[in-house]
Amino acid sequence: MRRVLTAIALLMTALLLSTPCHPAAADYPVLRDYITDEEGVILYSSWYDSIHWVCEVLEEETSCVMAVLVVNNTDGEDIAMWSTEVFNQNGIGQEGKDNGVLIVVAVGDGTYFIAVGLGLEYVLNDAKVARIAREELEPYLAVGDYGQGIYYLALWLGAEIEESYEESEPKRYPIEWIPLEWPQLFMACGVSLLVIFLTGGRILVWIGPWLSDLGGGKAGGGGAGGRFRR
Amino acid sequence: MRGPRLKPLHIALIFVGLIALVMLVWIATTYNSYVEMEAEIDGHWNEIRNQEQRKMDLIPDLVAQSEQYQEFEKGTLENITRLRTQWMESDSAVEQTNISGEMGALIDDIIITYEAYPYLQAEGPLRAVMDEMAGTENRIAYRRTKYIDAVKDYNAGIKKFPGKLVADAFGFEERENLYGSAPGP
Domain range for residue A65? Predict the structure, then answer.
């Protein structure tokens, strides 16, 4: 009987592995906090706490999530596409509300982009974001004062959001933080237990990377960007 | 104390039942994956269409603001207006997409001119419409990339074994790439 169960387990695994899905995504940065500074240009500056504070207060008061990412370059990819992909892979903002903003500065490339979540586009339209970035960010980036520029940009964007953002009512589920109806919930529990049983618990190793705490928001390529070094 | 032993027939029935269950789960999962992939393709396609419409809505303002400056070539602005009229009159989504692409090259010319003269970038209606247009083009470019990837993944999925069995059984057909020669969805 044990052999039969093993054979079925193997068959099921083989079939599930053959289920069509998207290929593994390219290697984009994983954001775990409001600020991810791979270049260390704001991490050790006095502006770090100020930027963090703006993001924290914004989330507390509006539920919108603002994140900052500083990298050297975008691997030759257009910064608008790259930033939108980073935004979506990290799911910035709340799922269903898509109320996130991601500020990306590529120090080596001399470019920046502000990706706006779909649920915030009516507050932060492209022209407004571009204007704020030109006035508050670019002058500081041009002289290498990344922390101050990002702080003022975050502050102004945050102020716009606080003033105009109206929180939409999220879809209600039986368990609020799990976006599943009861039948789907039972099925998911059953399948999860079966998979855990069949794999002897080894499947649990693979769920670690999914545990991001910035939400599940989406962006559609909206926002604005520019170049601070010609 | 030992319980009653299962007869070989019972074991065979349990075995067949479990295999059938596994097959059923796999068929359902594969079917749902194809449905989701099709929905994703359609979602990207619809968003491209929305953004193209937005682009067309911005064109009159862009042309009106640009006409006030002699730096912009009059011929380019006339061509953009002509293409917009063609786009509005066309019933074919593919033709509209091609026109939009052609127009994109002309808009790039305008943006290059705009960026070459810093005084054009002073705060005002021209800059606002340029920012909106740049954002719209970003959205189209992003969705186009996602659409092409989604079509590629879906087409590969329904052609590969054993997924092909489910695709054939439930009538999932290959989707033409919008940016190829054949018509879109």
Answer: 35-169
Q: Lowest-confidence range among A3-17, A80-94, B26-40?
A: A3-17
Instruction: Please count the residue pairs, one from chain A and one from chain B, whose beta carbons lie less than 8 angstroms apart.
Output: 97
Q: Are residues A141 and A160 in the same domain?
A: yes
Show the 3-state SS of A181-223. CHHHHHHHHHHHHHHHHHCCCHHHHHHHHHCCCCECCCEEEEE
* CB contact at 8 A, B135 and A224: yes
Secondary element (H or E) of residue B159: helix B125-159
Q: Set out the domains of chain B in order of their start, with CATH numbers.
A: 43-170 (1.20.1440.20)
Q: How far apart are CA B162 and CA B159, in angstroms?
A: 9
Per the domain annotation, does A142 fall within a domain?
yes
Contact yes or no for A222 and B29 at CB 8 A = no
**Tens place of pLDDT per residue across chain B (185 aa):** 556 677 888 888 888 888 899 889 899 999 999 999 999 999 999 999 999 999 999 999 999 999 888 888 889 999 999 999 999 999 888 888 889 888 988 998 888 888 888 888 877 888 889 899 989 988 998 998 899 999 999 999 999 988 899 999 999 999 988 775 443 44
Among the partner-chain residues B6, B34, B135, the one whose CB lies closest to the CB of A223 is: B135
Contacts of B127 in chain A (CB under 8 A): 127, 130-131
User: Residues A23, B37: contact at Cβ < 8 Å?
Assistant: no
Strand partners of residue A36: A69
Given CB atoms, is A21 within the 8 Å cutoff of chain B?
A: yes
Contact A80 B138 (CB under 8 A): yes
* Residues A39 and A131 grouped into a single domain: yes
**CATH for A159:** 3.10.310.50
Whether residues B29 and A22 touch (CB distance < 8 A) is answered with: no
pLDDT, tens digit, for every residue of A162-206? 999 987 665 567 776 677 777 677 778 877 787 777 776 666 666
**Final residue in a domain of this structure, among A118, A152, A169:** A169
Contact B143 A220 (CB under 8 A): yes
